[in-house]
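assembly run, all chains below
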Amino acid sequence: MKIVVLDGYTENPGDLSWSGLEEFGELTVYDRTSYEEAPIIAERIGDAEVVITNKTPISRETIDKCPNMKYIAVLATGYNCVDYTYCKEKGIPVSNVPTYGTASVSQYSIALLLEICHHIGHHSQTVFEGKWQNNPEWCYWDYPLIELEGKTIGIIGFGRIGQQEGKIAKALGMNVIAYDVYPNDFGRAIGEYVSLDELLARADVITLHCNLTPENTGMINKANIAKM
Amino acid sequence: MKIVVLDGYTENPGDLSWSGLEEFGELTVYDRTSYEEAPIIAERIGDAEVVITNKTPISRETIDKCPNMKYIAVLATGYNCVDYTYCKEKGIPVSNVPTYGTASVSQYSIALLLEICHHIGHHSQTVFEGKWQNNPEWCYWDYPLIELEGKTIGIIGFGRIGQQEGKIAKALGMNVIAYDVYPNDFGRAIGEYVSLDELLARADVITLHCNLTPENTGMINKANIAKM
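ok done. output:
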């Protein structure tokens, strides 16, 4: 069985090993192929049975050119790079990695919020420079400090990542409100589902965990405008 | 009734108002007096009934020199700046503010941890400088990224602030272990009490929420050495 990794660099810039995959067949790894539709994609897939991609698009044209393909694995959560509707028609299974980013993205998002609240890197650097030691009260701030307890976070897109961020925000003492087209009980246990308009009106902080479709992008603009 | 604030600057460098206190008597606010024992402390208290301090020490000598004092309010959590044993003997109540820092200090402590994990300020700055946009994979990191889920945080001093930090760490997916001389049920609901040696052996991250007494400082050194 032939296995082709089309864009291995993002996952493995040199610090990981692909040898686990070699056990399953003849493996070819390309660091990059093309992040836009291009003939090289089908050329590199050739007669491989298994195709592994991250951001390289697998279009209807590519699928037609590579009839040997039996399985497409997307090494990401979003699988919009694959024409999965056509794959379904052709009986080619497509898999993604739905949860690899749940903990890391929600943690990162909270880290961004805390950077706004504390400018930690700057503060740490100025402490090293002696600003704390030389301050008569041992107490200074170059930026306003923001305490999150009692403030309201509005989460647009309350899936796995949004809910996980909601849990952390709740532990920080924040009120959690969320907007999602598919409310569920996991979400209800963490926060309150509200309409988008209510979310924009009530939230002190807005965080987005949704696809950046044109429709959602319009929503984001609306959110920005409302808070400015 | 005379009220004296000995070191108002830390609480109110100009962005707050003392007028609420003026309703209760004749108020005098000094920005700073002395953070070490000095005759000026008793001179400024004079015949005031109420003394408000943050870091200015109120010693036995000062208490003897100011027999009119009926109440000492410490605008901080730690009240070691007041000879409270002698106050008790003299029947002078001393109050502190035990909880003003619970949310803010635990939030700040987590922000410090996330700075180590993400160097957010640096990353944000380099994104603004175009490093993300110009990266072929839209994916880069100048420092190793650390995911906290599944890692163990060891909290030395598991009082209000330590426990609140434990809740946030737990929401981040961390295992919480704690050392405290006074275990309680609130703490048991958040994490696992362990001995100090076990904490030092098991923790990936150590956070200190204890007084910096010489005994505890020795413990900190031990912790540092163990992790280096």
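Chain A has two domains: 2-95, 102-112+148-227.

Chain A has a mean pLDDT of 92.

not gonna interpret more than that til we talk
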